[in-house]
Amino acid sequence: MNETSLRLVWIYPDLLSTYGDQGNALVVERRARQRRIPVTRIDVRSDQPIPTSGDIYLIGGGEDRPQRLAAERLRRDGGLNRAVANGAIVFSVCAGYQILGTEFINDLGRPEPGLGILDVKSVRNDGDRHVGDVLADMDERLGLPPLTGFENHQGNTLIGPSARPLARVRIGNGNGTGDGTEGAYCDTVFGTYMHGPVMARNPLLADMLLKLALDVHALPRVDEQWYEALRAERIAHATQAAAARS
Amino acid sequence: MSGNPEPLSPRAKLAVTAGKAAAAVSRAAGKGSGSVIGGRVALKLDPDLLARLAGHLDVVLVSATNGKTTTTRLIAEALRASGPVVSNALGANMPAGITSALAGGSDSRYGVIEVDEKYLAGVARDVTPKAIALLNLSRDQLDRAAETRMLAEHWREGLSGTEAVVIANADDPLVAWAASSCPTVVWVAAGQEWKDDAWSCPSCGGVLQRPGDDWYCGDCGFRRPPPTWALHGDYVLSPDGVAWPIQLQLPGRANKANAAMSAAVGAVFGVPPKIALERMYSVQAVAGRYDVVTYLDRQLRLLLAKNPAGWLETFSLIDGPPAPVLLSVNARGADGTDTSWLWDVDYTRLAGHPIFVLGDRRLDLAVRLEVAGLEFRVCDDLDQAVRAAPPGRVEVIANYTAFQDLRRRIGN
Ligand SMILES: [Zn+2]
């Protein structure tokens, strides 16, 4: 953590904030403040440089054309790569997740280089768009309860040797590659297809980022009543819907 | 501008009759107004029916993400000053519903038609409109609808050769982009509260600059077209520089914008702004929206808000604290099944209001409000929420199917 205040950077709200993922920034900020951790939220528009001194960087989902524009501008800027080289924490969703990888298919149908800070590569799924509630088991090394979220994407993402799957799907598609994986992570860089937003459905993910940033193993408890009620409802809904389909 | 009614062919007559019969059966079976099912049967029998039914009408098409039902109603009221109007007033805005509405308009001079954004280009091709009003475009139902800029592109391509006069909101960059390929455009400065879908230049992808009310792209030079009509507070300025007072029973800035657009449309057909605006005053509620209904000794004002832009406009028109606010959100097919958009709505605007939460997705709302740091109460149903609210006026804000549920419950 930087000096006196935790610096939370929300990347490109003008391009990658179309699917409610700024909720992740709101949840991280809220849960930090509830622990009396001072937070500074920094929104960086795509014509501004990415600060390299952030503690936690969040990137959200966006439509296909803004995704290409964001990748172009982030590559040109180079700030996020420098921040990660310095140990910054990055949590990315959907289009943002694809951008962190080595390559994805852009809106023009052509391969677009990503930032290469997460060892994943995305291709376009030729079948139906993946839309719906997802239930997945988190990678056991993370020690987190099941992942619940909403996916809405046309991508299939392959995980390379230096990254691990974030979770294994029980219901839904996740990475869409047929191997049952969802999302990916390596050290302090995370990616997922989950909206909802994912931190609202899985607040312990927000706590995980805070613990990494603060270098602590535990945080004071906060009131989880509504988060837990929502999680239980969405998990039950996904389970019932899957049972009805089969 | 009105032509003589052209007689319908025997096939078209049969299609209209079959459609009316199907609608009657549907109504009798309790499946709603029957307007869509009737139109679907009729269109199947005669695919050109829409074009034929519109043949004798001066048609106005109205499309937008938000406000199209209300604006359709305001334009219809304005044009009634110069002739009978047929309209799909209940918001059945896809080809089947439009067909069904027009089938009742054989004696009309004008057809004022709300069109779903995705169908606008196709309907404009079929009915050869005299005018097309384009109000705004923003994110809506992203789990199934087209991307917002793609819709603008679709409008731009589909309307590029239109002979209609296009009345377009110059303050919405996506609408301006869509309309700027049309030969004849009347630009209206109707304002835009929600800006988060138009930070990128629709033309080149550059970052838009937005000093004050203006906007422009520093990269390619695409900029806000100079408007000839403008909404200015409670007035609409017409091209001759006269400020006409807007007096509506409908609340809020967004409805003033809808009235300004409607006055500009009226002028295309020779209806003077004074008369058009006076006639708009008569509109009190539109398909239940803005209605004030007494229920369990409280006065519920029913407000529909389907997406972040709609919620933002709605927050700006409700009574200030301590007016109680009741929020209801569903995520059924017609709403979009993903509730993530709740996080694009700034609920801190409700600070100080007693808040009551219901609907299928009340737990999503609860987490959203908790993270916004607001006090709220989660309720099982409408009656419980209304009884929990203090007597007097209650502002009720609901998304699409939640709104229908509320109307059904209170018998409105
Ligand atoms: Zn531009």
From TrEMBL, chain A:
The keyword Transmembrane does not apply. Keywords: Cell shape, Cell wall biogenesis/degradation, Glutamine amidotransferase, Hydrolase, Ligase, Peptidoglycan synthesis. The active site is at C94, H195. GO terms for biological process: cell wall organization; cobalamin biosynthetic process; peptidoglycan biosynthetic process; regulation of cell shape. It catalyses: L-glutamine + H2O = L-glutamate + NH4(+); beta-D-GlcNAc-(1->4)-Mur2Ac(oyl-L-Ala-gamma-D-Glu-L-Lys-D-Ala-D-Ala)-di-trans,octa-cis-undecaprenyl diphosphate + L-glutamine + ATP + H2O = beta-D-GlcNAc-(1->4)-Mur2Ac(oyl-L-Ala-D-isoglutaminyl-L-Lys-D-Ala-D-Ala)-di-trans,octa-cis-undecaprenyl diphosphate + L-glutamate + ADP + phosphate + H(+). InterPro entries: Class_I_gatase-like (IPR029062), CobQ_GATase1 (IPR033949), GATase_3 (IPR011698), Lipid_II_synth_GatD (IPR043702). Gene3D superfamilies: 3.40.50.880. Residues 8-202 form the CobB/CobQ-like glutamine amidotransferase domain. It comes from the Bacteria. Substrate binds at R129. The lipid II isoglutaminyl synthase complex catalyzes the formation of alpha-D-isoglutamine in the cell wall lipid II stem peptide. The GatD subunit catalyzes the hydrolysis of glutamine to glutamate and ammonia. The resulting ammonia molecule is channeled to the active site of MurT. PANTHER family: DETHIOBIOTIN SYNTHETASE, LIPID II ISOGLUTAMINYL SYNTHASE (GLUTAMINE-HYDROLYZING) SUBUNIT GATD. Forms a heterodimer with MurT. HAMAP family: Lipid_II_synth_GatD (MF_02213). This is Lipid II isoglutaminyl synthase (glutamine-hydrolyzing) subunit GatD. It comes from Streptantibioticus silvisoli.
UniProtKB/TrEMBL annotation, chain B:
Gene3D superfamilies: Mur-like, catalytic domain (3.40.1190.10). One of its GO terms (molecular function) is ATP binding. GO terms for biological process: cell wall organization; peptidoglycan biosynthetic process; regulation of cell shape. Residues 65-188 form the Mur ligase central domain. Keywords: ATP-binding, Cell shape, Cell wall biogenesis/degradation, Ligase, Metal-binding, Nucleotide-binding, Peptidoglycan synthesis, Zinc. Forms a heterodimer with GatD. The lipid II isoglutaminyl synthase complex catalyzes the formation of alpha-D-isoglutamine in the cell wall lipid II stem peptide. The MurT subunit catalyzes the ATP-dependent amidation of D-glutamate residue of lipid II, converting it to an isoglutamine residue. InterPro entries: Lipid_II_synth_MurT, Mur-like_cat_sf, Mur_ligase_cen, MurT_C. It is an enzyme of class 6 (ligase). It catalyses: beta-D-GlcNAc-(1->4)-Mur2Ac(oyl-L-Ala-gamma-D-Glu-L-Lys-D-Ala-D-Ala)-di-trans,octa-cis-undecaprenyl diphosphate + ATP = beta-D-GlcNAc-(1->4)-Mur2Ac(oyl-L-Ala-gamma-D-O-P-Glu-L-Lys-D-Ala-D-Ala)-di-trans,octa-cis-undecaprenyl diphosphate + ADP; beta-D-GlcNAc-(1->4)-Mur2Ac(oyl-L-Ala-gamma-D-Glu-L-Lys-D-Ala-D-Ala)-di-trans,octa-cis-undecaprenyl diphosphate + L-glutamine + ATP + H2O = beta-D-GlcNAc-(1->4)-Mur2Ac(oyl-L-Ala-D-isoglutaminyl-L-Lys-D-Ala-D-Ala)-di-trans,octa-cis-undecaprenyl diphosphate + L-glutamate + ADP + phosphate + H(+); beta-D-GlcNAc-(1->4)-Mur2Ac(oyl-L-Ala-gamma-D-O-P-Glu-L-Lys-D-Ala-D-Ala)-di-trans,octa-cis-undecaprenyl diphosphate + NH4(+) = beta-D-GlcNAc-(1->4)-Mur2Ac(oyl-L-Ala-D-isoglutaminyl-L-Lys-D-Ala-D-Ala)-di-trans,octa-cis-undecaprenyl diphosphate + phosphate + H(+). Pathway: Cell wall biogenesis; peptidoglycan biosynthesis. The active site is at D338. Residues 304-403 form the Lipid II isoglutaminyl synthase (glutamine-hydrolyzing) subunit MurT C-terminal domain. Pfam families: Mur_ligase_M (PF08245), MurT_C (PF08353). Zn(2+) binds at C201, C204, C217, C220. This is Lipid II isoglutaminyl synthase (glutamine-hydrolyzing) subunit MurT. Belongs to the MurCDEF family. MurT subfamily. Signal peptide: none annotated. Coiled coil: none annotated. It comes from the Bacteria. Its EC number is 6.3.5.13.
